[in-house]
Amino acid sequence: KLLELDKGHHFLPPSVEAIEKRCLELFARDYKYSVIHNPSGEVCGHYPRQIVFLEYESTEVDRESTVQITKLQDLVNRSKLARCRGRFVCPVILYNGKHICRSSTLAGWGELYGRTGYNYIFSGGSDDTWTESEEVPEDDSAVRNGDSQLFDKVRGHDIKLLRYLSVRYICDLMVENKKVKFGLNVTSSEKADKAQRYADFTLISVPYPGCEFFKDYKDRDYTAEGLVFNWNQDYVDAPLTIPACFTQNLNIDWTQYQSWDLVEQTQNYLKLLLHIINSDDESGLLVHCISGWDRTPLFVSLLRLSLWADGAVHSSLEPAEILYLTIFYFEHIESSDDTEPYNMVKENFSALKKKWEEV
């Protein structure tokens, strides 16, 4: 019934308010949290009206918060221009004190200049995004043009947000290094950043087909078995790139990834993500695709459901409640139309390797 209701995908405002209230109640069962208010999309037009930031588990009464909301909101406001559609790095799962985050990819120069100009005009000629208390470190180039300086500024803010959230690993699901439309680079990515601003992070390229391929999945009556992506298309230029430390213990032949059907590919990528978040006791993970609204919520949802099944997150929620929270807060309110997580949940995908039934 939840999935059938979600397919309607359109709510009147009172229904949205009721859903938001219910989602906040479900968050409060297990977590102390803060909220950044976003009623008209002022912070981001593609995120919920109340953006929840989990601080610590409710049972940890003496625990210090993992975030300070005033500092976090300042970093968010400064960094949001760095990413496509303003979908900034947003922590959405708190697992053993580590943040699992989602976002879109890095914005290209066209969107960046467009948004900075728009913000300048409609802020009355001022934009506090550029007000900075400390300088972004300069790189080694003696001479840099205006484009480079602008990218230094906005991506510097993005990097500060990532570091504040203790994110070390960035998992990029794009099948291209940069998204190209009509011969123009409309988005970029960390792996394509020429100045290597993200060199201090562990970049993991796990190309996964996007919404265009999901149409093929739908046309097959949502049957993913035997559905293999065509990796020989001209725009596909992002190779699978995974550090050896994450591939050694998974018993997966990664050289065969282009022959996997959608089920096997999804399963293996999920195993990889679970391995990453359990290999480091202190560092968080960012997952993103291009716009952050098809592949990103797919894998974030699978991670959430798997960790919930282990009792590692949202431990007090019943199956219907975790589905409600996943679908309506993380999917519906954020404009995702992806039902794949609920068709691919398997007993193999447990961070603690426990067997559990399909929700």
UniProtKB/TrEMBL annotation:
Protein name (record):
Myotubularin related protein 14
Q: Any signal peptide, and if so, which residues? A: none
Q: Which InterPro entries match?
A: MTMR14 (IPR039802), MTMR14_PH-GRAM (IPR039803), Prot-tyrosine_phosphatase-like (IPR029021), Tyr_Pase_AS (IPR016130)
Domain of life according to the entry: Eukaryota
> Which molecular function term from Gene Ontology is one that the record holds?
phosphatidylinositol-3-phosphate phosphatase activity
